[in-house]
């Protein structure tokens, strides 16, 4: 196989040597890395999708949906932990796939990660816009509806008439602000993220603490509502469908693996950050879901702000304001980490000549991949301005599950290709755990709609076409 073949791969020794020579400063410890993970995981999903999954698919058993999604993420998280410690360089799933399956597979993974990071951050930015305009409205400040909704969306004006929206400008604004922060430096971004994560955790814990005393246990019955005759609509198939929906709330934990090249001690810090953030977030998710469906009957939770509805039932005015603030902070940290992750993946792909070389250049003073970060910010802001959140959300989960499957395959494959490599963290029971991770992800994908599968096939086909038009023969020789 020639050095430029689609199956050519990078050796672990080359990856580690190349990563050691990189100029990115090592400024992140385990606390900051864990906060990056929590910041990515606990975002718009916990404030929106918990209610949707309970009302439409799983009922009170949405708790089980969260646990099923967490189990799938746990298998994948173990694989991420081994690979992040084994290959402590930027690039996440893209890099791991390049080392195990070759350049074409790596390109396709990088292409699908665009669905998770760029499209995901655009979707979350649209959600942020909704909470932001709502918070302003509660203070008597009205944002014209035409300037706070996706292009062409029919909005209702103050006089009762309707009009078509121009663009979602608050979504553009938050993406622009966070892009600037990321360009200014990783250390500064991490500090800001840590503060916002702390506020977010206080808010989530306050909801659990105050809400627990208002739970009506009768609202938990029946725990698994009977199926209404349609697959995925209540019953145990609804619990599976609910798991596929709430899986969106876990999207982003893999962004922690992009911190490897800036971690102080990646072999120790990366497994702690990945598994720690996943464990903390899962406990909080299940607790929030239990309190939410205990306060409000699940049939009433299909609303844009289900936790806000529950807080109204509690009847503590100041808690309502706290929840709104926490939602804004929570969603902001999710956007921050997703934008960060996408820029690091593009930068490493540019080093491999599968992206324009400009994306790999670091700012001479700030030492951040400014060109990659700026381009991503512009594209994400444009998408967030014009595309509805429902369309964006459908694209995110399937791309992420595809990438997760490739991570599990990479662990299994590298154990065979380079069995004697030093692994500071080892996945137990290989190949059982990677296989369970693959099967879990496939199970969640089964819960997605046929239209989503069609979009995945089209997206992959476009990626293959781009590879053979641009990337073939341009990759770094191995």
> Could you say what the CATH architecture is?
Up-down Bundle
The CATH superfamily label reads: Amino acid/polyamine transporter I
The helix count comes to: 16
Which term fits the overall shape? globular
- The helical percent reads 55-70%
Structural class: mainly alpha
Total beta strand runs: 2
Q: List the helices and strands in order.
A: HHHHHHEEHHHHHHHHHH
Overall mean confidence score, pLDDT: 81
End-to-end CA span: 11 Å
Radius of gyration computed on alpha carbons: 22 Å
Unreliable stretches (pLDDT < 50, length at least 5) are none
CATH top level is Mainly Alpha
Briefly note the CATH topology name: Amino acid/polyamine transporter I
Q: What is the domain total for the residues? A: 1
Portion in beta strands: under 5%
**Biggest sheet descriptor:** 2 strands, antiparallel
Q: If strands are numbered along the chain, what order do they take across the biggest sheet?
A: 1-2
Explain this structure:
This protein has 478 residues and is mostly helical. It has a single domain (29-469), classed as Up-down Bundle (Amino acid/polyamine transporter I). 67% of the residues lie in helices and 1% in strands. It is built from 16 helices and 2 strands. It has helices at 12-20, 30-41, 44-58, 62-86, 92-100, 103-138, 169-184, 186-212, 235-246, 266-295, 306-314, 317-351, 370-386, 389-417, 432-446, 450-471; strands spanning 154-156, 162-164. Strands 1-2 form a two-stranded antiparallel ribbon. Strand 1 and strand 2 form a beta hairpin. The N and C termini lie close together (11 Å). The model has no long low-confidence stretch (mean pLDDT 81).
């Amino acid at each position: 196989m020639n050095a430029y073949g689609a199956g050519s791969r990078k050796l672990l020794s080359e990856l580690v040597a190349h990563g050691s020579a990189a100029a990115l400063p090592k400024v992140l410890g385990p606390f900051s890395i864990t906060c990056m993970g929590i910041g990515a995981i606990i975002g718009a999903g916990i404030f929106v999708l918990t209610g949707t999954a309970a009302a439409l698919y799983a009922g009170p058993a949405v708790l089980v949906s969260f646990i099923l999604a967490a189990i799938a993420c746990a298998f994948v998280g173990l694989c991420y932990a081994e690979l992040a410690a084994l290959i402590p360089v930027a690039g996440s799933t893209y890099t791991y796939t390049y080392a195990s399956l070759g350049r074409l597979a790596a390109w396709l993974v990088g292409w699908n990660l665009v669905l998770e990071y760029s499209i995901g951050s655009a979707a979350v930015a649209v959600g942020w816009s909704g909470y932001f305009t709502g918070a302003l409205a509660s203070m008597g400040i009205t944002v014209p509806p035409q300037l706070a909704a996706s292009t062409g969306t029919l909005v209702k004006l103050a006089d009762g008439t309707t009009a078509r929206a121009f663009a979602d400008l608050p979504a553009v604004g938050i993406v622009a602000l966070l892009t600037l922060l990321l360009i200014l430096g990783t250390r500064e971004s991490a500090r800001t993220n840590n503060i916002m994560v702390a506020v977010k955790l206080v808010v989530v814990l306050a909801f659990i603490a105050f809400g627990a005393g208002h739970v009506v246990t009768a609202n938990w019955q029946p725990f698994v509502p009977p199926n209404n005759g349609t697959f995925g609509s209540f019953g145990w198939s609804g619990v599976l469908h609910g798991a596929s929906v709430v899986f969106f709330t876990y999207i982003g934990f893999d962004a922690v693996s992009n911190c490897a090249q800036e971690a102080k001690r990646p072999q120790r810090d990366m497994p702690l950050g990945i598994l720690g953030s996943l464990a903390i977030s899962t406990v909080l998710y299940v607790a929030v879901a239990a309190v939410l469906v205990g306060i409000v009957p699940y049939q009433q939770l299909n609303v844009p702000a289900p936790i806000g509805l529950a807080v109204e039932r509690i009847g503590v005015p100041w808690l309502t304001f706290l929840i709104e603030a926490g939602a804004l902070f929570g969603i902001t940290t999710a956007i921050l980490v997703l934008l960060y992750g996408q820029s690091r993946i593009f930068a490493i792909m540019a080093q491999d000549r599968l992206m324009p070389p400009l994306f790999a250049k670091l700012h001479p003073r700030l030492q951040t991949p400014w060109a990659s970060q700026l381009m991503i910010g512009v594209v994400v802001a444009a998408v967030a301005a014009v595309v509805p959140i429902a369309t964006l959300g459908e694209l995110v989960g399937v791309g992420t599950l595809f990438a997760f499957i490739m991570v599990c395959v990479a662990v299994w494959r590298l154990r065979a290709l380079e069995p004697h490599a030093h692994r500071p963290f080892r996945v137990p029971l290989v190949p059982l755990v990677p296989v369970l991770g693959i099967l879990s992800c496939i199970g969640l994908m089964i819960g997605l709609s046929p239209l989503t599968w069609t979009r995945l096939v089209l997206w992959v086909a476009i990626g293959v076409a781009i590879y053979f038009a641009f990337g073939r023969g341009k990759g770094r020789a191995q």
